[in-house]
């Protein structure tokens, strides 16, 4: 009888120890998640800053018509700088197509500065004929684009809402998240004390 009581007591001690270990593990997972929080678009300090007015451009699109970069009544503009030889750019094209179809309040403008014939072949092979596509060295210089792919989200008022180097779907989504949160970047949001994040 004493052995049975001892075995039950030992089982209860083991169960309590496992519950304590589970709570400790859950807390450590939370701490780990905060330390390796999702990385947003890699913001550079050159060029026009978030919160400043975007440079104004009126450019011809390779797919026909004119493209306005700057204030646009009721619509934000995502300017996505890419190259026909950039594998990451090509990997992100399906997401850009999805954004273009699902986000009616955002116009997606593709931008490059390459040989026009090469870009036209790229537009045909990647099925980008529905996008506004500008070929302008001046546009890239105005935003100080040094590496690709790079994106700039401009609000309807012509003010830059977010920008950065994009290497993944998550980083592209971080531009929209930063805009919705009213911060310059996801990193600046995560750097705020938890009380201010609300």
Automatic annotation (TrEMBL):
It comes from the Bacteria. Keywords: Membrane, Transmembrane, Transmembrane helix. The keyword Transit peptide does not apply. InterPro entries: MeN_DH_accessory, Thioredoxin-like_fold, Thioredoxin-like_sf, Thioredoxin_domain, Thioredoxin_ResA/DsbE_sf. One of its GO terms (biological process) is methylamine metabolic process. Its main location: membrane. Residues 48-181 form the Thioredoxin domain. Pathway: One-carbon metabolism; methylamine degradation. It is a single-pass membrane protein. It is found in: Membrane. GO terms for cellular component: membrane. NCBIfam families: MauD (TIGR02661). May be specifically involved in the processing, transport, and/or maturation of the MADH beta-subunit. May be required for disulfide bond formation in some proteins. PANTHER family: THIOL:DISULFIDE INTERCHANGE PROTEIN DSBE (PTHR42852), THIOREDOXIN-LIKE PROTEIN HI_1115 (PTHR42852:SF17). This is Methylamine utilization protein MauD. It comes from Pleomorphomonas diazotrophica.
